[in-house]
Design brief:
The protein is of the alpha/beta class. Helix content is 30%, strand content 26%.
Length: 325
């Protein structure tokens, strides 16, 4: 089968198409014929070797942490009736989703309802669990002023829609007219371009004051600037590092102003949260809540994994990016 392999950290050119033997499921595992593989910003950081302290990955490795497709075979201890089932599956970290077939733990393979497309299911695998946890932390209420950075990204768009559904006044920050229009279409009351001078003040003016909730999916200097728009008692999340690092938080100022700040650790899914997240993820698929419909901005063939990473690093990929074997 065809798969993508990385033998050395570096630029997108290190994503190499290889032929590997078909994988076989072990005990408690399933083999999935991949219809779509999720691509996230974290994939680009790991490939570059920039986040070895957070996500140590031994070389060579096969990227891709989530897929959707059809179960082709099951290992020992897995009911045979699962063969042919449509599923979306989290893999073990970065364990081979960029491939024609992928092996996953049976417990992580969530059934996909017949009326939900496999591409849509794949598009939600990483972003929906994180969005659900962020929304829990944010406790958004009607009329809350909410600022969302990275609003044109796949998870940013989910957050925009969910905050709008909660009755908040939503300001989405992104870069460029195409992305801003997409953010507005998804329910933002106002949009600001953070490549423009004075964008933070423009965001506060558009919202009618300081923000009760700031959800920063960008990080770096932009994320740090966004935090300055938070009001007293604000709920703040610094979960994004697309700009190369997380936003800097002045903990003394935050404490003095009664702000509640959550970092990336708060939205990581450990063993204690995995079962609950799977249940909520499956429920969101079944109910097909409008606020959890993904926006798939672009798809690439498996062999075009390099191009997909280049588009993401150039910030040219609004919405969700998928690889299609």
């Amino acid at each position: 089968m065809k798969a993508i392999q990385v033998t050395a950290f570096g630029g997108p050119q290190v994503l190499t198409v290889v032929e590997v033997p078909d994988a076989g499921p072990g005990p408690g595992q399933v083999l999935v014929d991949v219809a779509a593989a999720d691509v996230i910003n974290l994939d680009t950081h790991i490939r570059a070797g920039a986040w070895e302290n957070f996500f140590p990955v031994p070389l060579p490795y096969a990227p891709g942490g989530a897929v959707a497709g059809t179960i082709a075979a099951v290992g020992a201890g897995v009911p045979g009736t699962r063969v042919g089932e449509r599923v979306a599956a989290w893999l073990d970290g970065v364990s081979g989703g960029y491939a024609e077939r992928a092996v996953a733990d049976a417990a992580s393979a969530v059934p996909v309802p017949d009326d939900v497309g496999l591409r849509s299911a794949a598009a939600l695998m990483h972003d929906l669990p994180t969005a659900l946890l962020l929304l829990d932390l944010a406790e958004i209420k009607p009329q809350d002023r909410v600022l969302i950075t990275g609003a044109a990204g796949a998870m940013g768009l989910l957050l925009v829609r969910a905050a709008h559904a909660a009755g908040a006044v939503v300001v989405g920050a992104a870069r460029g007219g195409r992305k801003l229009e997409l953010v507005r279409e998804q329910g933002a009351d106002a949009v600001v371009d953070y490549s423009a001078d004075g964008w933070v003040e423009a965001a506060k003016t558009a919202a009618g004051g300081e923000f009760a909730v700031v959800l920063d999916g960008v990080g770096g200097e932009l994320g740090t600037a966004a935090l300055s728009a938070a009001g007293d008692g604000a709920r703040i999340s610094t979960h994004g590092a697309a700009a190369g690092g997380f936003a800097r938080v002045d903990t003394e100022v935050a404490a003095r102003r009664g702000q509640r700040v959550s970092g990336i650790a708060a939205v990581q899914i450990g063993p204690d949260r995995a079962a609950a997240v799977r249940r909520r993820w499956a429920e969101a698929l079944r109910t097909r809540s409008a606020k959890f419909q993904p926006v798939i901005g672009q798809t690439f063939a498996l062999e075009e994994a390099r191009i997909a990473h280049m588009a993401m690093e150039a910030r040219e990929a609004p919405g969700k990016t998928l690889l299609i074997p």
